Amino acid sequence: MRSPRLRLLSFALAWLVVTGCGSTHIVQQWSNPDYVAPRFERIMVIGITRQASMRRSFEDEFVAKLKATGVDAVPSYRVIPEDGPVEEARLHEAVKQAGADATITTRLVQVDRKTETRPGTYRPAPHGVYRGYAGAWSGYYEPPTIYQYDVYVSETSLFDVKKDQLVWSGTVETESPRDIKKELSRYVDTVIEALKKRNLLIAPIAPTS
């Protein structure tokens, strides 16, 4: 039987598509200082999850956003229909079949439970002897409010297939579940914007006629 942690990690991107979130931001990122800004011809997007519908939703969204920036991309489920992990040879075969020279991979790292306390409020009694006396009986104090929420920590990485090299990696936090589609779009936008700022998403030069 798999441990709760392994079961959690097996869902990977499910957290992002199922819950959606109200806040998504990159908390840490790294890029290879020796890497020359590339012009990838095609990027294969890989969502690490055993749940096919979740994976497809994530990969399709990422592919659409990449194409909107002028970078060609393809979802991995088209060439890797398997729901679970594949062997190295199978992955390389799929990348070659897709005609990709780079991959973007996203996985869930952990889920943190956060607790916050909103302080209580006190409203002074009304002016006047009797109104102050009467108000004291009804009370003007609101007690503190304690609530909990989950913060999902994921990792997205960009690999150069030809050089077999990690180009960029970012740790992303998502919290306060709200709208699914909006937050999925926001997550992808956040990652793409970080890659663009580092000149890691340069559209290929169109062939001249």
Structural overview:
There is one protein chain. The chain is an alpha/beta fold. The protein has six helices and eight strands. It has a domain at 21-115 and 150-197: Double Stranded RNA Binding Domain (2-Layer Sandwich), CATH 3.30.160. It is elongated, with a radius of gyration of 24 Å. The longest helix has 18 residues, at 180-197. Helix 3 (52-68) crosses helix 6 (180-197). It has a six-stranded mixed beta sheet, sandwiched between helices. A hairpin with a 4-residue loop joins strand 7 and strand 8.
Count the E strands: 8
Taken as a percent bin, the fraction of beta residues is: 25-35%
Distance between the termini: 60 Å
CA radius of gyration is: 24 Å
Supply the CATH class of the domain at 21-115 and 150-197: Alpha Beta
Kindly state the mean pLDDT as a whole number?
81
As residue ranges, the low-confidence spans are: 1-12, 17-21
Q: Find the structural class using helix and strand composition.
A: alpha/beta
Query: How would you sum up the major sheet?
Result: 6 strands, mixed
The CATH topology name of the domain at 21-115 and 150-197 reads Double Stranded RNA Binding Domain
Helical residues, percent: 25-40%
Q: How many DSSP helices?
A: 6
